[in-house]
Amino acid sequence: MINTAEMLKIFQQYRGDALVVPGRGGRHWINISTKPNRDAPLGDPSMGGHASFALGLALARSNEKVVVFDSEGDLLMSLGMLATVAEQRPKNFYHFLLDNECYATTGGQPVPNAQNVRYDALARGAGYPSAHAFDNIESFAINVERILAEPGPVFVALKVTPEVNNTPIGQRKKWQTRKPVEALRDMQKELGIAG
Ligand SMILES: Cc1ncc(C[n+]2csc(CCOP(=O)(O)OP(=O)(O)O)c2C)c(N)n1
Ligand SMILES: [Mg+2]
Questions:
Q1: How confident is the model over 177-189, as pLDDT tens digits?
Q2: What's the predicted TM-score (pTM) here?
Q3: Where exactly are the structural domains of the chain?
Q4: Which residue(s) pair with 160 in the sheet?
């Protein structure tokens, strides 16, 4: 199992100017990212929303690399995204999956067939030209630079340690420092797009 924060710190070294949709890894990424204006923390959108937003971003900004940190509950709720991405074939799209085998954000309920689903195989079967899977940080660290140099769309399934949140939603401390709409405005400014 991979520690998400440790993995994101390694990714940070190779991020370059990529636009990052940090998904449910956002609470760690916010302390690691050195280019917050190139990040799109979306808060807690409808499950499946991170990858679809990231695909839209990749299609709209085809000269920028777009990296999304999706999660397995989100992906399962919007599996059609895999075929949609594969059909669009965005060369600039890097789809990482934080697979912690549970719905950690909502208390750790089990995800169907959690230990047996091969998400890299699903992505390949949907038509992604390249898909990888890692369950330890050492292999991830050795391969991440090469993977980010591949033409997209690329899928990277990561087995990560669950960090289950059992605090009632109303009592949680917000990790976000900006509302999603503010973060997106910051990104628009950074990219020179009139708001
Ligand atoms: C359509 C929809 N249903 C339910 C929720 C409530 N919800 C927020 S996060 C979450 C679990 C997400 O699980 P996963 O994608 O595996 O990410 P993890 O929390 O494990 O990091 C749920 C059920 C939601 N945001 N959207
Ligand atoms: Mg999960």
A1: 999 999 999 999 9
A2: 0.97
A3: 4-190
A4: 2
How much distance in Å is there from the Cα of 159 to the middle of ligand 2? Answer: 10
Superfamily of domain 4-190: Thiamin diphosphate (ThDP)-binding fold, Pyr/PP domains (3.40.50.970)
Cα dihedral 9, 78, 54, 164, rounded to 10, equals: -30
Give residues whose Cβ lies within 5 Å of ion ligand 2: 71-73, 100
Q: Kindly state if the Cβ of 101 falls inside 6 Å of ligand 1.
A: no
33 CB near ligand 1 (under 6 Å): no
Ligand 1 pocket test, pick from 1, 3, 28, 47 with the greatest ligand atom count within 8 Å of Cβ, gives 47
Q: Whose CA is nearest to atom 9 of ligand 1?
A: 105
- Which tens digit of pLDDT belongs to each residue from 144-188? 999 999 999 999 999 999 999 999 988 998 888 999 999 999 999
Cβ neighbours of residue 82 under 8 Å, at least 6 residues apart? 75, 122, 123, 126, 127, 128, 155
